[in-house]
Amino acid sequence: MIMSQPSITILGIESSCDETAAAVIQNGKILSNIVAGQDVHKAYGGVVPELASRAHQQNIVPVVSQALKAAGISKNDLDAVAFTKGPGLLGSLLVGTSFTKSFAMGMNIPLIEVNHMQAHILAHFIEEKNNSENKKPSFPFLCLTVSGGHTQIVLVKDFFDMKVIGETIDDAAGEAFDKAAKIIGLPYPGGPLIDKYAQQGNPNKYKFPHPNIPKLDFSFSGLKTAFLYFINERVGKEPDFIEYNKFDICASIQSTIIEVLLSKLKKAAAESEIKEIAIAGGVSANSGLRRALELEREKSGWNVYIPKFEYCTDNAAMIAITGYYKFLKNDFTDQRTSPSAKYSM
Ligand code: KG4
Ligand code: ZN
Q1: What pLDDT score does 2 carry?
Q2: What are the pLDDT digits (tens) for 32-84?
Q3: From ligand 2's centre to the CA of 321, what distance in Å?
Q4: CA of 19 to the centre of ligand 2 (A)
Q5: What is the per-residue pLDDT for 41?
Q6: Ligand 1 atom closest to Cα of 281?
């Protein structure tokens, strides 16, 4: 007789910044993935922490209900609930953490705490229901994690054995996109819009300085300042400069950010002699970065792993998959847990 495997069903909850998200993963396979964004920040040109917490408070119950419904399961089918402990905005994290603690207590199921940055990386291990697109990186691999708050190169030796070998000393890559976008009058978050306009522009039209930072670390604040001076100078001479050159400006700043990221990633790959290369985080949704990695696959013989678009930006599927692997190790927490804005890996 063939014994069937017991199924392990995990609910994941993400609330670290401005997305309220819930997802269900069963035996590593995605059953549902719901994300509610927060348009309220658009008018302010960035995330307003107080407004983010309030929106999480409004969204969390409907988002969880929708995730359970879309997964076709009842809350009684859950084996554990995983949540983002940090890093992130404290007020936002408190909503997800408090909800999850109450939910776990009410349902009498274990609680699993998840590091958001680790989860971005483990998003590569989410399996689709139909077994398609299941190419996963093998250990050890390098992951370039690029989001609105972080820019890191991580040496991933195992699911929970990760070492940050390079990181930004000031702004994150996502911040560089968003700040450049703000300078040319685009709404927050500007990264996706720069990506969209860049597709119609000439990446070599304008040149911006590359930072000279030792080792595997990054810096983007000098680029932001150089970009601001460049735009001010050109607009001073030609008031419609941005309007007439929007596509080329976006293509040029995007290609500079990508060159900076790629040069350090190549250095890390050469030094570690690792050819398993992954990207993660919101900026890994960028089509220029994805293309640049595909080129490197051919040029350098890398095996490149790029997550599905919906697993790049903040989501709870990545929290649920991390929860699943922690469940397999019996790595649970208890009701004394609390969020940590600067939680490190
Ligand atoms: O990982 P994420 O959703 O949230 C954080 O943990 O920060 O990343 C958000 C960041 C924002 O800065 C956003 O502008 C950027 O990712 N982003 C992009 C693209 N999509 C999202 N940047 C460039 N191109 C994109 N297509
Ligand atoms: Zn993130």
Answers
A1: 55
A2: 999 998 888 887 878 889 999 999 999 999 999 999 999 999 999 999 999 99
A3: 15
A4: 9
A5: 83
A6: 1
Please tell me the distance between residue 233's alpha carbon and the centre of ligand 1 in angstroms: 28
**Ligand 2 centroid vs 147 CA: distance in angstroms?**
6
* Domains of the chain with CATH codes: 9-133+312-328 (3.30.420.40), 141-308 (3.30.420.40)
Ligand that comes closest to the CA of residue 147: 1
- CB of 45 within 6 A of ligand 1: the answer is no
Ligand 1 atom nearest to 313, measured from its CA? 3
Q: Which residues surround ligand 2, an ion (CB under 5 A)?
A: 147, 314
The first and second tokens of residue 102, run together, are: 């109450």
Give CA separation, 199 vs 12, 127, 173, 184, in Å.
Answer: 34, 30, 19, 17
Ligand 1 atom having least distance to the Cα of 196: 26
Q: For residue 173, which ligand has an atom nearest its CA?
A: 1
State pLDDT tens for residues 247-301. 999 999 999 999 999 999 999 999 999 999 999 999 999 999 999 999 999 999 9
